[in-house]
Amino acid sequence: MIVALTAAILTVLFIIVVLTLRQRSNYPPGPFPWPFIGNMIYFKKLSKKLGGQHFAFLELSKQYNSDIISLRLGAGDTIVVSDNKLIQEILSKKEFDGRPWNEFIKLRNMGMKSGITMNDGQDWKELRSWSVRALKNCGFAKREMMQLLLDELTLILDRLKDGGIQHIQTIIAPTVINVLWTLITGKRLSEDQRLQHFLDLMNRRSQIFDMSGGILSTFPWLRFLLPEKSGYRILVTLNNELKSLLMETINEHKQRYVKGKEEDFIDAFLQEMFTQKERGDKNSVFSDNNLIVTLIDLFIAGTRTTTATLEILFLQMANHQDVQRKLHEEIDVVIGPNRLPNLDDRVKMPFTEAVLMETQRMWLVTPVIGPRRVLDDTTLGGYTIPKNVTVLMNIHHNNMSRELFPEPEQFKPERHLNENGTYRMDENVILFGKGKRRCPGEALARSALFLLFVGVMQKYSLLPVPGEKSIKAEFTSGLIISPKPYNMLIVPR
């Protein structure tokens, strides 16, 4: 009996192996995907050893001498692309516009295939297009947003006024989320324990999961056996608390809604929702589910990425005093010591723009972007890519390419300036994606980075703590990379 059972298991495994190898004809190279476990365990170990998912992808690209590699990191196949031209192709071709629907994404979306981030199809196109327009109407990339950011900057400067050795991350963390929340809901999310609790949850979430969905995508049953270590409990807790806050906010808007007096994103959505209901449209994208998940998308997108980028910017200024001196000189000439910066200053501050670009090129907080789902059988780089394969893009590898950026490991803002000293937007640097899935919060992120970074640097010099030559740059990895907590000496200018 045991012999027969063993023979049957081996036969099944042999068939799986044969079918797998047959399916991989003209498929990108990569480690053999073992039945049931794929490459997840091996890849996790490699990522931990090298310090991040993006470094592991880079190592595998070197091993297989290919800018396209294949892995099994969940229930289905995944390909990872590092080449600049191929990434540009993915970002522009409709065949790569889909999103996978794995266990992590199901949990993240509260089981609803809705919203503008982890969704696809015609409904997604309509909702995303409308959301981008609505965000602009609510103040994105407008004077209203700049004023909200300057109000937050004033609070930051007030907390920093005494200088000294401080932990700057805790001071800037609530800033962007408060601006985003005001534009979306019409009111500021006060800095109480609830906000700090959300920030802590989001931070833990970003460290446990990665763009492949983490271990839950491969072994979804682990949520029952290891709810804490698998990250399941964090997602459920975050979902429940976030949904409670959002529903409370949505219901408040419904109770006070007056047609023609829309003041924020939720009001604009409700206007569309009520209008469609009056017309009898039962298949409208303007539903409670789409509103909740879209708000979650915006909340998640605006919570950590911009804050983490600011943390890296301030750290690098402390570690590169020569760059900081040039930055101070430009700020003093263009803005002076008295008034706050504004967005009109950007065109007159090419070195500042170059610092922002170079910092993000080297330490992009989203070094791997995606995931994309292939909508139809297609080809990429000469390989056959089947329908429903998941695609990840190693932006770190692209932004650190020696072919595109000579001496890529050197921090040289000047590489983004022309011979006459004007700022040169380098299309080879990918920061916010491109195409139909370009980050909808780009306008807020770019504005926040400029105003908050320049506003702090205008008033202060940043230094390592006394006795140290530099701040040790250590990073957490996961959905985003961010600096581990650090202290710096803040000196009023």
From TrEMBL:
Annotated TM spans: none
Cofactors named for this entry: heme
InterPro entries: Cyt_P450, Cyt_P450_CS, Cyt_P450_E_grp-I, Cyt_P450_sf, Cytochrome_P450_fam2
Keywords of the record: Heme, Iron, Metal-binding, Monooxygenase, Oxidoreductase
Metal-binding in keyword set: yes
PANTHER family in alphabetical order: CYTOCHROME P450 15A1, CYTOCHROME P450 508A4-RELATED
Designated name of the protein: Cytochrome P450
